[in-house]
Design brief:
The protein has 208 residues and is mainly alpha-helical. The chain contains 10 helices and no strands. Helix content is 67%, strand content 0%.
Length: 208
């Protein structure tokens, strides 16, 4: 007997895949040249695999569109095509919609503070986004070492501050497997940095 079920993802999600590709067509991940759409697919995958709704999955694909590719005009295009719920999550996941953007530290501090009032849907998408970023940072640090920090708008200490703060916020606001993995990924990066620092600080015995 064939059993059919209503798919969780439908035509709207398919259209969002196309829109995400169009919004970020010429964008690459800083320092790596990897098409930015890879990150969007990664975030959407995490959201889908942890029970997200179609609206959340669509917002995951489009979560950087307004912030990086058009501000409020892009947000209104998303609202018109995918509805208020998706647009609300995209807006909540954006740390700035203006141009020029405020300084990096100021934006990140404001983002951390706004998480306390974020919707459950936005927390899910944001956590997936930050986890995918953190996974990538750990892999890239293993690959390129200290030159990784040249890709950021902050130094190493600033990046660590931000992700430690995010891990603490999500452990409080959305505890569970994803928040735990984010905290563990931050801890793994810290171990890598400590090991690299210890290795570089070890004296060389040239003999006497």
């Amino acid at each position: 007997m064939n059993v059919t079920t209503t798919p969780v993802l439908g035509e709207r999600f398919a259209r969002a895949l196309v829109r995400a590709f169009e919004f970020h067509l010429e964008q690459t991940r800083k320092g790596s040249g990897i098409p930015y759409v890879g990150h969007l697919l990664g975030v959407a995958s995490i959201v889908i695999e942890t029970g997200g709704s179609e609206d959340e999955a669509i917002a995951a694909l489009l979560h950087d569109a307004a912030e990086d590719q058009g501000g409020r005009e892009a947000l209104e295009h998303i609202r018109a095509e995918f509805g208020n719920r998706v647009a609300k999550v995209v807006e909540e996941c954006s740390d700035s919609l203006g141009d020029p953007k405020p300084p990096w530290r100021e934006r990140k501090q404001a983002y951390l503070e706004h998480l306390d009032g974020a919707s459950p849907e936005a927390l899910h998408v944001s956590l997936a986004d930050k986890l995918h970023n953190m996974r990538t940072i750990v892999v890239d640090y293993r690959d390129v070492g200290e030159s990784l920090w040249d890709r950021f708008n902050s130094d190493r200490d600033g990046v660590l501050w931000y992700y430690r703060s995010l891990a603490a916020a999500f452990a409080r606001l959305r505890p569970g497997a994803l928040a735990t993995e984010l905290a563990e990924s931050v801890a793994e990066l810290e171990r890598l940095l400590e090991n690299a620092s210890a290795g570089s600080a070890s004296p060389t015995n040239h003999g006497m």
